[in-house]
Each structure stands twice: as structure tokens, then as C-alpha cells.
Hints:
The complex is a heterodimer of chains A (644) and B (262). Chain A is α/β, with parallel strands linked by helices. Helix content of chain A is 38%, strand content 16%. Chain A contains 18 helices and 23 strands. In chain A, the strands form 7 sheets. Chain A has a 5-stranded parallel beta sheet with strand order 5-2-1-9-17. In chain A, strands 11-15-14-12-13 form a 5-stranded antiparallel beta sheet. In chain A, helix 1 (12-22) crosses helix 5 (110-129), helix 11 packs antiparallel against helix 12 (374-392) and helix 15 (505-520) packs antiparallel against helix 16. Chain A starts with 11 loop residues before the first helix and ends in a 14-residue tail after the last strand. Chain B is an alpha+beta fold. Chain B has 9 helices and 7 strands, in the order E-E-H-E-E-E-E-E-H-H-H-H-H-H-H-H. In chain B, strand 3 and strand 4 (77-78) form a beta hairpin. Chains A and B meet through helix 3, helix 5, helix 6, helix 12 and helix 13 of A and helix 1, helix 2 and helix 3 of B.
Amino acid sequence: MSLDAKIPQGPLAEKWSKHKFNLKLVNPANKRKYDVIIVGTGLAGASAAASLAELGYNVKAFCFQDSPRRAHSIAAQGGINGAKNYQNDGDSIYRLFYDTIKGGDYRAREANVYRLAENSVNIIDQCVAQGVPFAREYGGLLDNRSFGGSQVSRTFYARGQTGQQLLLGAYSALNRQIHLGKVKMYTRTEMLDVVVVDGQAKGIITRNLKTGEIESHGGHAVLLATGGYGNVFYLSTNAIGSNVTAAWRAHKRGAFFANPCYTQIHPTCIPVTGDHQSKLTLMSESLRNDGRVWAPKTAEVAEKLRKKEITAAQVKEDERDYFLERKYPSFGNLVPRDVASRNAKEMTDEGKGVGTTGLAVYLDFAEAIQRLGEDTVRAKYGNLFDMYYQITDENPYKQPMRIYPAVHYTMGGLWVDYNLSTNVPGLYAMGECNFSDHGANRLGASALMQGLSDGYFVIPYTIGDYLATIGPKAIDTSHPAFEKTKQEVIAYNNKLLALKGNKTVVEYHRELGHIIWEYCGMARTEEGLIKAKGLIKALKADFWVNAIVTGENDEVNAALERAGRVADFIELGELMIDDALMRRESCGGHFRLESQTPEGEALRDDDNYAFVAAWEFKGENQEEELHKEELIFENVKLSQRSYK
Amino acid sequence: MSGNMNLTLKVWRQKNSQTAGKFVTYKAEGISPDMSFLEMLDVVNESLTKNNGEPIHFDHDCREGICGSCSLYINGRPHGPKKAITTCQLHMRTFSDGETITIEPWRAAAFPVVKDLGTDRSAFDRIQQAGGFISVNTGAAQDANAILIPKVIADEAFNSATCIGCGACVAACKNASAMLFTSAKITQLGLLPQGQPERYSRVQAMVAQMDEEGFGNCTNTGACEAECPKEITLMNIGRMNNDYYSAKLFREEHAHDHTGGE
Lengths: 644, 262
């Protein structure tokens, strides 16, 4: 099967507008004859649901939370990019495009990224019109800040709670359509399978998380907006409920899974303190605008800090190594996330880590507090400082924060073409659950941008092209494919419920996470990956014999929900390892020790790996088949990334 | 870090909204002071699971104080003893070794128990759906800087917009009133120029829905403000009342223009 990305012809800057004109339209009077299913109501899902309902389609929206307002998009802190050039500092759509392509280490599609940059301008307008209270200057104009991987201030923000405000904006647009009867909202409902009829997606199978009822829902198209799979690592900055199940089950029904090994490790997280932890907390990248990252110059000083014989304030200026400022003078502390993460790891590997575990470096605000005053720092970052204090019991106004990289965002996901369609007609993927816009590394403030771009400004156009082709004939949920898929879901859940072993699902999850972090985390080797493959295989076999799943189906059963998600994470973990093994190059946050420059930076191999790896499911316990989508760069020259 | 703690938990267990609930006592042993309250419950649940018990159900998701899922009533207070944080940010160092902790779900008729400590807060969504939005279609917005909003106004709107919809205000209120929650959205949109066209119809629609859901009225006790993890102030309720009475007394006609249906 060939992978056609359907990238429009013509100059980069005209591709999207020409494509929009060429897409088929659905007559306004016919739109109400189409039902569209949207799974997930975070930024991508809620914005798509609202926009499609405004156009006139009947939308059925699903989320596993008790309210769409709780989607994990709400936790994003720092900001959203928009190439507005309000600051007159030289920003442009092309510069945002260029920064994103370069930041993604040349592993993203040019056409998609350009469209993302183009839409960024409209997103800001849309959100402001909805009443999103972005930060403002005294004169009433919008304020901006800058984020990692960029030298302009193009990031719009609402204190450290930008994701919350953008999500509440999309949620209110969604509420308006629920109110008008154009969206039917199914909360506490988890998608467990996709129904494929004659090669096209026609519906989904769900479990009602309150009653356990397994239900069939038909639709002319199925749109997944289910977020990322970072929780495969067990510890991550994701919400506890974030999972890969919907995307993974779609994968098993034929949708290709692209670049699964691409995970973003975020440099600015609160370090792990012990085995009890259920998740990690991220501190916005915006902190690096004013905070200076450092580690002691020598392992001896670090040792004293770890033993609490001295405090950070007692470490003299010439004993400190501001390693990002030293190594990357033009970007300094605002280097992209992969670079900042790798350098922090290097420091701790050399014995220069601080904190009781030694797995941390400092993010120091002493200089900023002296320069700006504590009040200004509090106004900018107060909620983040409070959060840090709650978790660590340390006051970041008085002593530097301790930070360490943690799993944050997954750039891999379902393969989609330029229209956001997977290779299964009628099945679409938006936001973090597709692979398309960030390449091998995601720049700051671009996740919110992609979610909203896909939902507000891409899918409303591209979906019409497909729907017009298939026609508004009603979907028949009595088709045998619905019943067959439903029975398979019931059988699978029963198999999970029958597991009455001696090890909890959480224990399996934690073990899986340790394996993936150790061998497929910030640095990888061929040898390690081969070892990990064996470990996961054994873990999977053990899970299906010795796991404990308590309770019954016909009630609220968080244990059953978690078991299904962990079983899927284990299978995804196997594919991540295969993907990482195949990619014998370093790119983005994926550091293959075998592939580095003489200075120890990530060394890409464009001759052999300038492609998207799209994996095809071939059956239970079978090796997946690799398909390659070659990446063609017509507008930017492939070059070694440098932030020096 | 000090040594580990042993605690006694009195936890409300209730199979579903149709059945009666009761307190059940559990031991939580070897708890690190660095654990969050929810991590402590995770430990108890792991042990229950291994001993053929049924884990305690509670709502939680982001565990960083922003999603609004977590909703425990701890020792008689929503989100526990500390000010301005959610349960997920409450750490065990707040408690002492040997302490008995009572854990209950939110108590309000409009928030029926789903299971154990989890409640159904969809009434909040229905209040928002009644009018907690600005009617703008995708793709029709003017340039963002064409709408000037002074910093003080934007900041004040933001203060109201930080509501996470957790329901602590309702749980804290002796009347189970939802006025702090509802007024926060009304204030945010009412302060901004974008929110003006629907300002008076919005307040009436949202207040009517709030009443329909069975939330009680406000008697200015202020428990909501005291327990709100995001420190939403009573000023919001004042603003809501002001808009509501303005709408009722002077703008009833305008309110009837509400685009409540097509």
C-alpha cells in the first residue's frame, strides 16, 4: 500500500488556499444529513466539534472525563504561538514555519507546518473573540513572551494557564452548540474500537463508564482527537487518564501508526523524589525567560549540595556552570527542549546533579529577582512558583528550583495525510494523536497551536471533501460489522475481568515505564533496545496470566478502564522499541549513542532516514510492517541544527 | 524528609447513586510525607486490590491542580485543610503520624454520588451551556488587537476565568449554592468588550439554569470564597447580582432577544 500524503502542488505559501478552493463542498442544506463522530474534546476535539456543528453537521462528541472542560489540554501552561509580528521584532509566517521545521529536526512535512504557521494568526483572533483573557499591555494591546527554539516574542499567554483559558474558550464554543442541539455530548464514555465497513470507518464502539454498557454509534466519519501516549512511560507530565487506547485500537483496525518512538522529554520538570510518585509536574518553559539554568562546576561541590552541607546560595559565582549560556550563547537558556534536556542529563551523568537523588539541575531566579524585583517575578510566574512550593516544600523565591527532564509530549501518532485523514477512509486524527506537524521534536507553544489549527481551521474544510464523495446515505448500525466489533470488545473486556492473578495493573504499568524510559528515553543504543524488546515481550505474557482486575463490567470500574489502557500501552511499547531500533540516527530528543557529532550533538542521517515511519498492524504478536513516506524539502535546506 | 507515617482513614463507600453509603475504616501505613493525598489513596488502593478488596473510587486526572476533577471532602473541608489548593496538591506532610482522616464526597443534591467519593457534576456543564459563552462562529473573528482591553480589565477577567469547576464552592456552602461558580463565568465575560452583546440575557439564562438544577441560594456566608482553590472572590457574586437585577428591572426586553434556540 502506498502512502499518499496528498500534498497540494504549487508554491508553499499558496498550497493551503489553493487546496481549500479545490476541496469539494457540501451544500448547506445537505450538511444536516451527515453525522460526524468526534472522540476526545480537548483543544482539537472541542474546537472541531464546535466548528463542524456551526457549519451544520450533526456532531456526536465523546470524552472519558465527566466534562469536556477536564481534557488534559487544560494543563498546558506557557502559551500559544501566533506569527502576528505585533512586536515588530521580525516575525513572519515563514519564520514560524522555518523555526518549526528546524526545531523538529527536519522530520516534519513542509506543507503541514507552513499551514500551521499560517493558521496561527487566525487562532489568536478566534480565541480573543471568544473572550479568552490573554495577557495585555497597559494600553490594551496583547502582550507576548518568547519560548524555546525561537528568537522572537511570538507567544501569547494567559499567566501560566494558557491551556486552561484556550480550552475553556473551545469548551464554551462547544457548549453553545450543545445548547443549540447541534452537538450531542457523551461524557464518561470511552471509545474501545472503531467500526470499519467495506474499508471505511463508519462508527465506534464505546463503554459507558457509569453503567458499563457497550454501545455502537454510527457516523459518516470518525474523528479522533484523543491526545498523546506519554503515559506509556508511567511517569510523565500527562494526566493520569491520558491513554493510547482509541488510537491503538484504530491502529489495529488498519490505521498506520507513525514515528511511535518520537517522544518529547521536557527539560523543566520537578524531579522525581521516590517510587510513590504517580506523575511528574512540568514547570512552564517560559520560566527560562528569566530563570538561569546551572549546575556546580565540579562533582565535589555537587556532592556537598546533595548532602546538604552547603546551600545553593553558598556556591560562588565562579563555581557555577551556566552550561546552556556557555554552550549555546545565541539562544542561551531558551534552546529547544531536546537540547536543554540532553544537557541536563549530561550534567547529572557527570556527577554534577543536585538534590537528594542527584537527578536535578538548578533553575535560578536570584538574578531576575534582583533585576526585576520579587513582585514582578511573582506577577509573571506566581502560580508556577506556588505549585513548586506545594510539591517540594521549598520556596523558589529564596532558593533555586530543582528541575529535571520528564516525558511530556508525543510527536508520534496516527499517520495522516494533508487532509488529516488516516489511511482508513473516513477515519481522521487531529491534535497530539496524529503525527504530523512537529517532526522529531516539538517547539514550545506549538501544541496548543496545532490542536486549535486542526480543529478550528483544517478539519472543517477537509472533512467536506470526503463527505461529499460518500453522500449523505444514513449509516446502518445494524450492519454485521457493528455487531461483530461489539462482540469482540465485550470478549476482550471479559478476558481482562477474568484476570485474577497476584500483581496489580499499576505494577505492570510501572515496570513497562521503567523499561521504556531506560532503553527508549533520552538516549538509546541498539543493544539496549534489543534487550528492552525481550523484556516487554515477557512483561506482556506475564500480564495476561498474573494481572489482577477487580470488579465487574456493569458498574463504575476504574480498574477495568486502567487494565485495558495498560494492555494497549504494552503493545505500543513493543512498537516504540521496533521504531527506535530501525531509526539508526539521532534526531530531536532521540539520541542514538551510535550517532553523534564530534561535539556530542545529535547527528542526523538525512540520506537514510529523512522519512516518516508508518507502521502497519499485521495481526496479534506479529511483527509490524514498515512503510516509508519520504520527506521532501523544497523550501528549507537540510542542515545540522545549531543554536550556538 | 521526616519518617513515614501511619494513618487511619474513615472513607465514605457507596456503590452507586441508588444505594445507601457508609463509612469504612482503613489503615494507611508507611506513608511518605512527600506523597500527595491522592498518591496516599493510590497506595491504599494497591493494597486493597492485592487483598481481594475493592479499590476506593475517586475522581482525579491532571494531578497538578488545574483540571478540577479531584473533589474530596477531607476532615470536613473541601480539598482539605490548606488554603487555595486542590486535593491533588495537598501533601501528606500536612498531616501528623497516627492521625485519623475522614474522607467524604461533595455533599449537594445537585451533585449525586456516582460511586464512593466521585460525584456527578454535570449540572455545572448545563449551567455553562445555558449561556456561558460568546456567540462567535469560527473563522469570522477580527484582528485580535482591534479589541483593546486595558490590562487591569484583562487581569480582572482572568481572575474570574481561573475557576476550575471543581465544585468546592457548592460543597462548602450550607445551601449548596452554585453562585460563586456561575458568577465567575458571568463576570469574566461581562467585563470584556466581547461579552457585552449577550451580557444581560446570559446572566438570566445561567441563573435560571442554576435554579433548575436544584442549587440553593446565597446567604452571603462566604464559605465558598474561603474554600475556593482558585481564590475566586465574593465580588463575582456581587457583579452577577448587579447584572441580574439590571436585566430584570431595566433590560427584560433585551434579554428576550437571547438566541436560545433556532
